[in-house]
Amino acid sequence: MRKTLLLAMMIAIMTVPFLTGCGSEEEKPAPKAKPAAEAPAEQAPAVQKSEPAGEGAQIGFIYVSPIGDAGWSYAHDMGRQTVEAMPGVTTSFVEAVPEGADAERVILNMARKGYTAIFATSFGYMDPMLKVAKQFPNVQFMHCSGYKTAPNMSAYFGRMYEARYLAGMVAGSMSKTGKLGYAAAFPIPEVIRGINAYTLGAQAVNPKAEVRVVWTKTWYDPAKEKEAAKSLLDVGCDVIAQHQDSPGPQEAAEERGVYSVGYNTDMSNFAPKAHLTAPIWNWSPWYANAVTKMLAGEWKHGSYWPGMAEGIVDLSPFGAMVPQDVQDTVNAKKQAIKDGKYKVFTGPVFDQAGAPKVAAGKVADDESLLGMTWFVQGVIGTTE
């Protein structure tokens, strides 16, 4: 199954990465929240323009994990709350929806109720959403982390690897041993790309840094993800990073008295003595932009991949233990990324075996990034 997905990713040019999950089907409306954030610019050419949504727009969101996960779904729900605060808009959500048949049922139910737009926020929702989209041409369908589109269905994600690189710089600066641990979800391009960016960031400040990877094959399993982090600590890693939705790895680092790097949101509350920073999502500007344009009939369907320049990805505040000189170095690189003066996968970049993957002075293109199935030098682990 995974090989089939990866092959499809390599064929698709303008595509977007992956994500997964567990289930409840109760639609939950929410009270009005804070005002909508400023919207970013569009990132891709149009497929088809939408019709104006008008007043009384109903927007639905579907999450793969509970919004209380403190991670992926929680970050998306913060964006939903921004949409909820917009005039003439009402939102609802269904959390912890398994991928597959359950997802199709939830999407179909929203479409039948006449929702203006439906946002599905996990990779495994892609095919179910595409199936429903073909039946409801007047509904706007939005799929996060996939690559398939239709005249009324867009794909969107964010360049999280940019923030991963910066987090790697922090970890490489703070590690005493140069041994970094990474509790990872599934060996798919999105996760592999993030591990590689993190490793390159660590090596930018410590050329001898290495990153050990343990796969959990989960997105949200706090106990299993915590155990994965412990296994990395047991072999001498003194900074733990994660591509997981739970704060389990952060808690493991805190208990062992070492440092950690979170993901999705600021997880410092779970590990105040360990948490250095975290690559985080800010979906508010993206969702506000999309819904605003739908209301005006200006939304253009296509594939979108905004990044740090658009405010979709960022770093959480540095922990108090991070020295000012480290913060200054990382912030300078962050500004260079935002200004387009630095690209994370700028060559030379070599794979684990030392074979060149990106030539000196060249920059990996989006097709290569989106289909990445290999580790850079310095990563210890397999892509299986």
Identify the notable features of this structure and list them briefly.
Rossmann fold; 384 residues; seven-stranded mixed sheet; disordered N terminus; 17% strand; alpha/beta
Question: Would you kindly provide a written description of the structure presented here, covering whatever features stand out?
Answer:
The chain has 384 residues and is of the alpha/beta class. The protein has two domains: 2-158 and 282-310, Response regulator (Rossmann fold, 3-Layer(aba) Sandwich), CATH 3.40.50.2300; 160-281 and 313-380, 3-Layer(aba) Sandwich (Rossmann fold). It has eleven helices and 17 strands. It has a seven-stranded mixed sheet, sandwiched between helices. It has a six-stranded parallel sheet with strand order 11-10-9-7-8-17, sandwiched between helices. Strand 2, helix 2 and strand 3 (89-94) form a beta-alpha-beta unit. Helix 3 (101-112) runs parallel beside helix 4 (126-133). The protein starts with a helix and ends with a strand. The model is unreliable at 1-25 and 30-50 (pLDDT under 50).
- H/E element sequence: HEEHEHEHEEHEHEHEHEEEHEEHEEHE
Strand content: 15-25%
State the CATH architecture of the largest domain.
3-Layer(aba) Sandwich
The unreliable regions are 1-25, 30-50
CATH class of the largest domain: Alpha Beta
Total domains: 2
* Major sheet size, sense and barrel closure: 7 strands, mixed
Distance between the termini: 13 Å
Q: Could you give the order of strands across the largest sheet?
A: 1-3-2-4-5-6-13
Q: Look at the structure and name the CATH superfamily of the largest domain.
A: Response regulator
Q: In DSSP terms, counting alpha (H) and pi (I) runs of 4 or more, how many helices?
A: 11
Cα-atom radius of gyration? 20 Å
Q: What's the rounded overall pLDDT mean?
A: 88
Shape: globular
Give the fraction of residues assigned to helices. 25-40%
How many β strands by DSSP? Answer: 17
CATH fold assignment of the largest domain = Rossmann fold
Secondary-structure-derived class: alpha/beta
GO cellular component, one term: plasma membrane
Protein name: Basic membrane lipoprotein
Keywords: Lipoprotein, Signal
Organism: Desulfovibrio ferrophilus
